[in-house]
Amino acid sequence: MVVDTEPRVLKHQIVRRSLDAxxxxxxxxDAFPSERDLAEKYDVSRETLRQxxxxxxxxxxxxRRGRATVVAEPKVVLPLAIGSYTEAAREKGMxxxxxxxxxxxxRADEALADLLQIEVGSDVVQLERVFTTGxxxxxxxxxxxxxxxxxxxxxxxxxxxxxYAELRSRGIVFGRVVDTIETVLPDAxxxxxxxxxxxxxxxxxxxxxxxxxxxxxxxxxxLYRGDRMTFTAVMDA
Length: 237
Prior knowledge:
This protein is α+β, with helices and mostly antiparallel strands. A 6-stranded antiparallel β-sheet has the order 4-5-6-9-8-7. Strands 1-2 form a two-stranded antiparallel ribbon.
């Protein structure tokens, strides 16, 4: 018995390759042809074409703007490192800011107290912000810090700027971070804050940062759009 080991190429994948080639000759912001025109051009069903277009949306090659579809800007590429993504984006010449979602102060439950090495019931300050580049909402970040570390932060901190820079100005020195990364889909609230639909793939980054003495500084939960963000990591042998 002979087993065919060649991967099967599906019709929508063939169409996707043709659309990729077409997009290579277009510029960001250009209008993407209609489904009807493309289905006629490639002689495929609308459903086959929609599968190819869905892959292009997930890959960040095109994006929806209201009822129109246009060629997307290149993805934002940022390093996985100790530091602020706002600062990293600005160093690359991109506009970047934060939109305040809200401040909160609550008492740590057992799980959070264990992560931050504080007593159960200790006050924790939570800051939730949307991260934008080029006026596009690309990330939703929730940072939780023991209140004893940052007295008066809510009264003095400009939420549009780097929180890490603010912490450094308070004499807090970052020593190391522990990151976890997985892929998820946003819930309805997260999708609304990032102005996407709930089928948009996301990177979920969980981080616990430690100071130079090994004491936790923050727990951060960051949700980034997989169609607009790419992360790089450099590891030395």
